[in-house]
Amino acid sequence: MHKLFYRLIDDKNAGRYRKQKVFISGSRYRVPDPEQISALMSEYINQLVELRKSRHPVEFAALAHKGFVFIHPFVDGNGRVARLLRG
User: Fold this and answer.
1) Which of 8, 13, 17, 46 could serve as a FRET partner for 37 with CA atoms 20 to 30 Å apart?
2) Stronger pLDDT, 22 or 10, i.e. the higher one
């Protein structure tokens, strides 16, 4: 999803997990280190499969959004992908 919409903005980073630390401006939340992203995304995807079976669609969308932005896997575009997941 990130690669599809982000390739015209930043083809070099489109669809690729970040390799550097990033910070969310205006937030004290520390996103996971780049070395953790692959494992966290695998766990996140597995959780989504289970949540989809057991949660109301609105609750599922909120949890999918929250889980994704907490991992913050890309250099940029995380909020946009999270909003697409909600849809």
Assistant:
1) 8
2) 22
Chain position carrying tokens 């057991």: 54
CA-to-CA distance for 49 and 60, rounded, in angstroms? 10
What is the spatial distance between Cα 54 and Cα 31, in angstroms, rounded to a whole number? Answer: 27
pTM for the model: 0.85
CA angle 17-51-2, nearest 5°? 25
Give the dihedral sign, CA 42/45/47/53: negative
Q: Which residues contact 16 (CB under 8 A, 6 or more apart)?
A: 3, 74
Q: Which pLDDT score is estimated for 49?
A: 95
Query: Quick check: is 2 catalytic?
Result: no
